[in-house]
Structure formats: structure tokens, C-alpha cells
Amino acid sequence: SWKAGLDWTLGKTSLHIFKQLLCCLQWYTPEACLQFKDHFQAQVRSACHQRNTGTVGLKISKVVVVGDLFVGKTSLINRFCKDIFDRDYKATIGVDFEIERFEIAGVPYNLQIWDTAGQEKFKCIASAYYRGAEVIVTVFDLADIQTLDHTKQWLEDALRENEPGSSFIFLVGTKKDLVSGATCERTERDAIRFASEMQAEYWSVSAKTGENVKEFFSRVAALAFERSMLKELEKSNGRMAQIGAGNLIKLEGNSLDAPESNSQASLSCC
Ligand SMILES: Nc1nc2c(ncn2[C@@H]2O[C@H](COP(=O)(O)OP(=O)(O)OP(=O)(O)O)[C@@H](O)[C@H]2O)c(=O)[nH]1
Ligand SMILES: [Mg+2]
């Protein structure tokens, strides 16, 4: 299954798939990539290989999806989590969430995907759920350029509730099936510029056809997983043990190299 296919990062075939995900497919936009590397950082790979993954498999990482009403947030989540698409609009009231289970490099990993309401009157309910987001997905409608203009405000609101630099940011254009030709190219150019300003990675998707939906969430899961693993390794590296009458001994773990690239890396380094 595609979920098993998330085991990209170990071995030759998996590396190939990851490269494909990063470089070759049409939807991928190199100028709007948060990181440009072939695989997880070495210490993450080795920890996965040795099954030394601590509490990562038990953890649920939070993904918050925000954006104007009617842009297709619920449809995107429903396509991914339930593989369904509904043509009729049913506004989200407040918030809703889905939990999706992954297996990455042999390690179970869970994402809790929060679907928030775009309608102004529900904003104060929805914003109460922004806190602790490992990933913020800012959504706009490729067929309605105004919704792109509003993404910066949505992001600002979500960032206000989170520690600086603690969340991956994605900008997602939906309803790709409704746009084509020069208009589409223009919108995407604007979107890539916005993504650069927002320090976000840009994706275009269609919940109707399913185009790029699995690939997008796989990417979200992979980046969130790697960060969870790095945090876990940092924690176990600095662990203290108490022996006898209270003497503290610092346990020396594997030394952690500095990260190869920052998750919020500026677009110029991709
Ligand atoms: N053609 C097309 N229509 C879509 C797509 N995604 C969503 N829609 C339609 O757009 C409308 C709004 O979709 P929703 O997913 O409910 O929008 P939302 O962003 O969740 O709206 P709120 O919950 O009010 O914030 C619905 O009628 C969907 O069928 C898509 O990829 N293609
Ligand atoms: Mg909705």
C-alpha cells in the first residue's frame, strides 16, 4: 500500500521513491521546497534501523488546516482520510479532526489532522485549537485568487499560538481540476512567491480527482516524523541517571550532528 511505501528512507528502492517525490513529479516545485535532500538525517536513519525510536511511535503529531471558507479544507482531508469527495458544500462548524496512522521507516507514526472552519463566526472557536501545531497547512482555492491573499492572515493567526520556528508551514492550492492554462500558471507563480514570503512549501492538489493528495500528506508525515525523531534523540542524549545516594551521572549518548538543514530553511537554500 502507499502507506507501506512511506518506508522511503532506507534502502535503494525507497531512496529512489523519495527522489521521485522530491524531484521528478510535476506537482513538485523546487523553488518552494522546505528542504532539499534525499533522505532523513543520518542519526534518524540509524535510530530507525536499530528500532531505537523511543516514544515516537506512541506520539500523535498535530496538523492544523486553516484557510477561507469554501476553499476545500474538509474535502482535502476527507479525500485523504476516507477517500471520498462530496460535491455539496457543508460548512465546518468550529473544528473537527481525523487521526491517520502511518508507518515510516518501520516505525508507527500518527498524525492528528485538525480541520478548522473558515467562516468568520467560528474563528474564535477554531483558533483555540491552533496551539501545539507541528504542521500548519494554509489552504487557498486556485480558482479564487482572493483566497490566496488571505492566507498570510490565516498563517499569522496560527503562528501567534505557537512557538516561533516550531511548526512546518505548507501553502496548499486546492481545486487544481478547475484551473488550467495561463491563469493557472499565473496563480501558481503568485503562490510560490507567497510561499517564499511565508517560509512555506507550496503544493497544488485536487480533492475531486485526488491529484497529489496522498503525496502531500506523505510529505507532511515524513517531515513531522523526522522532527519528532530528532527531538526524541536530543532528549535521550541529555538523559540523566540517578545512582546511589543522589549522585547524578550524565549518560553519554551518540553525539548529534548539527541539523543538515533547518525545517524553516529559506527557499534560496533548496
Ligand atoms: N472541483 C472541485 N471542487 C472542490 C474541490 N475541493 C472542494 N471542492 C468543493 O468546494 C466546496 C467547499 O469545500 P469544503 O471542503 O467544504 O470547504 P471548506 O474549506 O472545508 O469550507 P469551511 O468548512 O466552510 O471552512 C464543496 O462544494 C466541495 O465539493 C476540488 O478539489 N475540486
Ligand atoms: Mg470545512
From TrEMBL:
Belongs to the small GTPase superfamily. Rab family. GO terms for cellular component: Golgi membrane. PROSITE patterns: RAB, RAS. InterPro entries: P-loop_NTPase, Rab, Small_GTP-bd, Small_GTPase. Its cofactor is Mg(2+). This is Ras-related protein Rab-36. GO terms for biological process: protein transport. GO terms for molecular function: G protein activity; GTP binding; metal ion binding. The small GTPases Rab are key regulators of intracellular membrane trafficking, from the formation of transport vesicles to their fusion with membranes. Rabs cycle between an inactive GDP-bound form and an active GTP-bound form that is able to recruit to membranes different sets of downstream effectors directly responsible for vesicle formation, movement, tethering and fusion. It is an enzyme of class 3 (hydrolase). The keyword rRNA processing does not apply. It catalyses: GTP + H2O = GDP + phosphate + H(+). Keywords: Golgi apparatus, GTP-binding, Hydrolase, Lipoprotein, Magnesium, Membrane, Metal-binding, Nucleotide-binding, Prenylation, Protein transport, Transport. Its EC number is 3.6.5.2. It is a lipid-anchor. The keyword Isomerase does not apply. Its main location: Golgi.
